[in-house]
Amino acid sequence: MKIKAQSMIEYTVLIAAIAAAFIAMHQYIYRSMNARLKQVQDEVYETPVPGVDIPSVPKGQ
Description:
By secondary structure, the chain is mainly alpha-helical. The protein has one domain. It is about 75% helix and about 0% strand. The protein has one helix and no strands. The radius of gyration is 27 Å and the shape is rod-shaped. The N and C termini lie far apart (about 85 Å).
């Protein structure tokens, strides 16, 4: 009976350690996903649309 209880405690500690790792990594994953989405958004908005001419501002003004 003592070995079975020790085994359950070990599994519980292992699961708690894995859960703590996921919680700690959540912030880093969230930031990296937001940075990648921002990069894609910037690329989409900077891509010229075919057939649409955007007038440039003359130098010196």
